[in-house]
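Reminder to self: tokens first, then the designed residues, so the page reads top to bottom the way the pipeline ran.
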């Protein structure tokens, strides 16, 4: 496919799947309601400790929590959802490479997390009087899409590996809270055991929240933005490999159902 047709396919697919996800009550709950609840709890905790200067950091962390949740559940079950809807066979047989039809789904699930960031910022401003003063607005405008893209590409890895497990949904539930902790979305990684930090380096939310917080609160966000893009490239290579393996097994066994 030509670059122009590839970009158009990705754009149209992203718009379609993002609109489709916003019609789901579950994903609205995960991306818009749940982060606000966690942000409210965190706000009261920080206020009781008289550390109001960190409210913006807490709001951004809670927003990234919602972004991870929507990516985890949406991308982890992306292929399974297509199987349930009866469209997986059509996507596999389509002339376009399967990765180009799956990638818009995973990026759309991460993009849904922008509702989380906007919701927690608005909630903190309205209810707690939190000042929303972005130190580096330009860098913030770059850090957000970089975080979304890296999480979307991580979602591609999740989508192409989780499909091999019948208990993928339960596995998704298992990964939500540990990744919140390991990546430092609300609790600093330095407070966790030493072996946790190397694990956080290979996870996109770690660098996404660093880039966004540094752009909002001050600091140099560009190394973290660069790590988001680097990890995104690695996720793309890994996802393409695992997805080809999934297609190979499906064609060799003449079935797209789990065996």
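Designed residues (259 positions):
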């Amino acid at each position: 496919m030509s670059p122009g047709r590839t970009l158009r396919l990705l754009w149209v697919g992203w718009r379609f799947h993002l609109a489709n996800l916003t019609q789901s009550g579950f994903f609205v709950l995960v991306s818009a309601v749940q982060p606000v609840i966690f942000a409210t709890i965190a706000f009261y905790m920080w206020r009781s400790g008289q550390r109001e200067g960190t409210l913006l950091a807490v709001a951004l962390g809670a927003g990234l929590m919602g972004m991870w949740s929507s990516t985890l559940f949406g991308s982890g079950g992306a292929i399974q959802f297509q199987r349930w809807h009866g469209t997986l066979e059509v996507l596999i047989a389509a002339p376009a490479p399967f990765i180009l039809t799956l990638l818009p789904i995973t990026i759309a699930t991460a993009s849904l997390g922008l509702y989380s960031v906007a919701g927690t910022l608005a909630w903190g401003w309205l209810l707690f009087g939190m000042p929303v003063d972005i130190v580096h607005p330009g860098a913030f405008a770059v850090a957000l899409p970089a975080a979304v893209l890296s999480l979307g590409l991580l979602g591609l890895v999740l989508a192409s590996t989780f499909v091999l497990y019948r208990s993928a949904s339960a596995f998704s539930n298992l990964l939500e809270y540990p990744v919140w902790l390991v990546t430092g979305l609300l609790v600093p990684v330095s407070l966790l055991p030493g072996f946790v930090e190397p694990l956080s380096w290979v996870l996109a939310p770690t660098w996404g929240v660093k880039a966004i917080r540094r752009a909002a609160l001050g600091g140099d966000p560009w190394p973290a933005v660069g790590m988001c893009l680097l990890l995104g490239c690695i996720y793309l290579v890994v996802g393409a490999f695992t997805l080809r393996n999934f297609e190979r097994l499906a064609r060799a066994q003449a079935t797209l159902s789990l065996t």
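Residues 3-252 form one domain.
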